[in-house]
Amino acid sequence: MPEAAGGKGDTPSDVYPFDARSRFEDSVAWGITSSREYRWPAAVAVGAAILLQIAIPERLDNHLGPRWLLPVLEGVLLVALMAAKPKRVDAEERALRVLSLVLIAVITVANFLDLSELILALLGNSGPQGRVLVYASVPIWLTNVIVFGLWFWELDRGGVSARLAKTHRKPDFLFPQMSVPGVDRDWSPGFLDYLYTAFTNATAFSPTDTMPLTSWAKLLMMIQSMASLLTVALVVSRAVNILQ
Q1: pTM of the complete model
Q2: Which among 215, 172, 180, 179 has a CA at the least distance from the CA of 197?
Q3: How many domains does the chain have?
Q4: Does 27 reside within a domain?
Q5: CB within 10 Å: which end of the chain, N or C, has fewer?
Q6: Has residue 11 been placed in a domain?
Q7: What is the pLDDT tens value at each position of the chain, 244 positions in all?
Q8: Range of the domain at 148
Q9: With b meaning 16 or more CB within 10 Å and e meaning fewer, what string describes 82-101?
């Protein structure tokens, strides 16, 4: 593709011939191949999720054995994953994807069990104990954001390592940069983009600037919105009762 020949005031039609510009816009909409993927942002997010899980009151976190069991299991999986590939993701490391998915699944199951316990406790308790449960909803909601950000990052276009290959599958999310290709011709989403998508979906209970394109992406966003809505609605109602 020819290099841009114009100055700052040139429009895309001035910079690229029509056919080349069309091919470029099609490739951006399909999802530019990632030049690099780093594991450490996701590892930091997993570490934060483990700490948030520890912060949940013990009465809500006793459904899967001793309180230390899940954080230790998640920590072991994280250490194993980071020891295998500590920094950058490799296009050939798809075997590690299973370990990554297992780790995210464990955190997801634990958080949804905590959410179910929180819902039952909020519906059946009042007084000072209710105030503690309201505070407990914060780490559960934050973990909800983190874990779905991890799911989006791990599954979009076939996975983290798959996005490094030109033969990656069709995009599952349409980011603004993919519909406005003139913003950055080499842009590809990173973990922070998926975490931001999860955060906005959890706060607005619907997609904002990033749209789901495939059935599984829509289903995941729907599940996350429902979990977030239940948490916020019950917490607000309980907080009103406590203040009264």
Answers
A1: 0.81
A2: 172
A3: 1
A4: no
A5: C
A6: no
A7: 334 444 444 444 444 454 545 555 666 666 677 767 788 888 889 999 999 888 887 766 556 666 677 788 888 888 877 776 656 666 556 667 888 888 899 999 988 988 888 888 777 755 446 677 778 888 999 999 999 999 999 899 888 888 887 777 888 998 988 887 666 667 888 899 999 999 999 999 888 889 999 999 999 999 999 999 988 888 877 766 765 5
A8: 35-243
A9: eeeeeeebeeebeebbeebe
